[in-house]
Amino acid sequence: MRKKERFVCWVPCKPYVLQYLRTNFNAPDSEWTEIINLSQDSFLLDAFRTRLTRMSAHYDNRYNEMTKYSSVVPIEISKDDFYRYGWSLTPTEAVGFCRLIEHRVKNMLFTYIDVNRTLGVSIAYSINRFADDFGFTESIWSYDTMRREYNRHGIKGLQNVSSLIFEQTKKIILVNLSRNGTISPQGKNNYETGNF
């Protein structure tokens, strides 16, 4: 579909994927207020470009009813990509591309909650803050869904985040103590390496 010399591919997606794409890659003009341009992210652009096809001739029956995808996002295609690769995605390729974005958004959620849990903040409060901070309203991505995702997949990384935060905090403390003369540069090195 063309509008003002901009080519797009309409991709079905989940509402939180649409919200993520709008927040990170929206490239509006006077006629296209909702268009997404992936050129800022070469990985996503390549992942999208390689999935393009000229026709939806390759149809996979596993995805003939895409009921999970209640939103549609227009992703911009350059004129060269339009003629070289195509202008549409098969349902299978649309699902594959959306899974890449879903993985990114869930990674944001898990990291946000893990860091907050390390600091002693409850999961419930962390999820609500995440939703507010990143624009995921209840209709876009519900609290219950985020909680289920975190309970299934997110808790595994807590120990790594916790140790990383404590290591970085220790480095900041040692640098500050060394700068103000409380410990010597040699003492700083010994404290960092554990040689005392």
Describe the protein:
The mean pLDDT is 82. The chain has a 3-stranded antiparallel beta sheet, with helices on both faces. Helices cover 55% and strands 9% of the residues. The chain has a domain at 2-99. Helix 1 packs across helix 4. It contains 8 helices and 3 strands. With 196 residues, it is mainly alpha-helical. It is elongated, with a radius of gyration of 23 Å. The longest helix has 28 residues, at 91-118. The N and C termini lie far apart (69 Å).
> What is the global morphology?
elongated
What Rg is obtained from the alpha carbons, in whole angstroms? 23 Å
Distance between the termini: 69 Å
**Main β-sheet, in a few words?**
3 strands, antiparallel
Question: How would you state the average pLDDT, rounded?
Answer: 82
SSE-based structural type = mainly alpha
Please trace the helix and strand order, writing H or E for each element.
EEHHEHHHHHH
What's the total count of β strands? 3
Strand order of the largest sheet: 1-2-3
Determine the fraction of residues in helical runs and give it as a percent range: 55-70%
The low-pLDDT segments are none
Strand content: 5-15%
Number of helices: 8
